[in-house]
Amino acid sequence: MRDRDAELRSVEAAVDRLCREFAAGGTEIGELLAFSGRPGIGKTSLLHEVRRIASLREGATVLFARGGEQQFKEPYHVLRQLLQPVLTKLEADEFRQVMGTWEEVVGPAMGLKQPKAGARRLDPQGVRDGLDYVLTQLAPRRAPMVMIVDDLHWADAESLSWLAKFAVRSGELPVLLVFAFREDENDWPTETQGLRRGVLDLASRKHELSRLTLSSVTDMIRAELGDKAEDAFCYEFWNVVNGNPFEAGRLLDQVREQELEPVEENSRQLRELAVDATGMTLKSWLDRLGPATLRFAWACAMLGTDIRVDLATRISTQSTEGARESIKQLRKQRVLTQAPNGNLEFVHPLIASSIYNTMPDATRLGMHGIAAVEIENAGLGLLAASRHLVETHSGEGDDRIVKKLRRAAVEHQLIGAPEAAQRCLHRALNEPPADDIKAEVLYELGCSALLTDPGATVNQLRLALDPDEGPLRPELRVDATFRLSEVLAHSGELGQAALVCQEEAEQTAEPARRQRLQAASFMWHAFRKSEEDGPGRSARLAEMCRNLTGREAADRAVLAMRAWDLTLRGASSAEALALADEVLDGGRLPKGLGWTDTTWGFELPSMLCLTYIYNDRIAQAERLAADAIIQFEVAGWSGAHRGFAYFLMGLARFRRGLLAEAEDFLRRAYRISERIGAKLPLAWGAVGVLVDTLIARGRVEEAWEEANLFGFHPPYHPTAMVLPDAASLYGKLLVAKNRHAGAAASLTEAGAQLEVRGWRNTVWAPWAGHLAIAIASDEPERAREYAQKAVRDARTFGTASAIGSALRLQARIEDGQQAVELLEQAVEHLGQSPAGYEHAVALVDLGAALRRVGRLEDAQEYLYQGIELAQHCSAEKLVDRARRELANYGLRPNRLGLHDFQETLETLSGPEREVANLAVKGVPPQRIAEQLGVHLSLVNRRLAAVYRKAGTGPDGLASALGLQQRLEEEPGE
């Protein structure tokens, strides 16, 4: 710890602050302390002192891990070192609380349990999200917590990517992060160089360790060689090692071994000795250790950190006695030391690197092969052995190696490490595999990148389907084709995705497989922005639907597609809902069409969810979307899958008029999409509905800024259909901005394209109604034609929200009694729909129209109703508008006093009245839940609705509902 006073003071201050502020009740007190410097500068020694300082603090939890040069491709190696010790010590109940719903995701990744039989591959982002949850639960329970990582530059990519992200959030927890790493970017593996700057930028305390002073090095020399060491010798020694502590220690060893007197005339020999001390060659290590001991050291260097003696013994092919002698010699030479758990570790990582790098190529390849076998025989599994398997000699065509590598790839995917799986499969291809299974390995390689690297997936699956690469079993050909189309579609290449399925279907003889590909082709066409023969495709899909003979998953998939097709076309809602209901099994997705089912993907249940959203069955859609969110979380799929589930829930909430909740879900969906890639179809949908939501909340300028920031304007996404229709949303935004000329142009073009395709759903694409508003002042007759068309199309579709919304828009271009009559119809229809915001707008519009024709008493009532519903919807500007309507004409901007008791009671649903009665009697929510046999959260939601409708809190509830008098009248109360 020479010349490290400033660094140690910083450590003491950071640990003191953490412990002091936690003891005072602080929770958001974490920070990142970073130490960087050149190799051998003393980072490891400093972190040992950090561990000592932190462990002396009462109640502190100290977690430690070290990256390893040979283990930076071993997934989650660093995080397992950090977290396994503390997680395995938790009691069963606390473990379940810490893990929550993430046990099946985080458990396998952290090596705490085996994946469940039949488990699906994990999305790496899902594992990272799960780790976020686990640490937010664990940290307060084991606070104050100090997490120390040495040699961060050699951390595996999976661990480092999480640590870099977690460092951002550490300030929200009672956690001190302490990282040590090499400063030079060239010392970082290529895979993780991009994370280096992020870690540096996040550190609140940064220290670049400087070289030792001449005085410190002189003290080291004289402590080892005696006080007679001459100043000139010490100066040259310091100059040779450049103040590097590690190099100084190694050179001192050489000086002692050579029995070199520390006098000025011997100082010229120091440079020659330093070459042997720091740049150990094969010859120098052989001379120093001998062949048997060096071979044992090679085995240890291959194992990396936390070296098991029995494994190193077997890998080095030594006897137990021979290994014991080798260890004795290596400890004497200050190469190895014993860890607290009885295993071995290198005195310094630079020594391990030096020894590993002296291995002849043939020896290294052979010993990696032995290591793979011995690790597997020791029961450590293929995950641990695969690191060595990928380093073995290829070109032998060994079927056993190929088989093991393929199995290891599967296991890597089950813990959320697709890059490691791909390394195994690339190595299997280099073996190479037998001709009859090469295409299968290519297929597996393509599938391994499904969640992380779409480009690689496309390339590998195309190769797998290429006959020149060998045969692919028929069932795998169909699946490979579907996966290829899926990735193409998610990348926006919907036309190509449909074509791939269509061409393969024409060559597929087996009926069920052919139907799957035909259905997939229909599905991708349905999501396209434009199509050559939309009506023709719809007719072919209808014919396919009529010819179904059963209700297997493939048949139900066709029904779901037809239901969505009818919805887009604005055909009978009743027919679309009948088909959608046939798909479900007891209100739930059937086997084979689940959210995480890989046969069809999540697009099919998404179509079903969208069908319910646009057909006024929003509660059913929300149940499906909620299931999707939960299932994707449990499966660890935190990428596009969960992002789309958030989008669906946000869209459903928007359609219901729960605008604040909608905004939250949509922003989450957008953040996930941007994390995956720029301007994916998911992002277009999320931003589009977010803009619509902000318009509804009256934040038009913010909506305009969001649209411009993203680029939500023509030409939109080049190939993918946006949900809802992008051009209609943009036109609606222009109308809200009073840019009527631009809105008219945009909506006219949108309408023309949709009419050609035969898509006339006025909720998904309300272009005609908004076009009528945009041109009303200049072309009133044409405006009426478009408004009437929108109403006709809405009546053909038949949902209450579609008809009510179209009537409301038509009323915008009418005056006087005509407007009142249209709005009365709109309110009647929307009152029978779940479209809360649309209903609120219609109520306010009707109140304003009634005021204009002099019916002030009726106007007042509708405006009050509109205010209440708009408040429930978080439509703040609509509330303000209604209040202005009331205030400007001498009406009160709020209701005078409370509702009549009976009127308020009538607004409560049966379950709400039930909990209200019990709450008035003083029964606490937990007992209400027990008495009614429902979840506490449901009771709390019902009570919140009661308080909102009654306009009071718990204390005034009895009075507000008139229940106090009733209780007094009841005997025995």
Automatic annotation (TrEMBL):
Pfam family, one: AAA_16
Domain Orc1-like AAA ATPase residue range list: 13-178
Keywords: ATP-binding, Nucleotide-binding
GO terms, biological process: regulation of DNA-templated transcription
Record field: transmembrane: none
A molecular function (GO) term: DNA binding
Any one GO CC term of the record: cytoplasm
Entry keyword Disulfide bond: no
Recorded superkingdom: Bacteria
PANTHER family, A to Z: TESTICULAR SOLUBLE ADENYLYL CYCLASE, TRANSCRIPTIONAL ACTIVATOR DOMAIN
Protein known as: Orc1-like AAA ATPase domain-containing protein
Protein source organism: Kitasatospora aureofaciens (Streptomyces aureofaciens)
Lineage, top ranks: Bacteria, Bacillati, Actinomycetota, Actinomycetes, Kitasatosporales
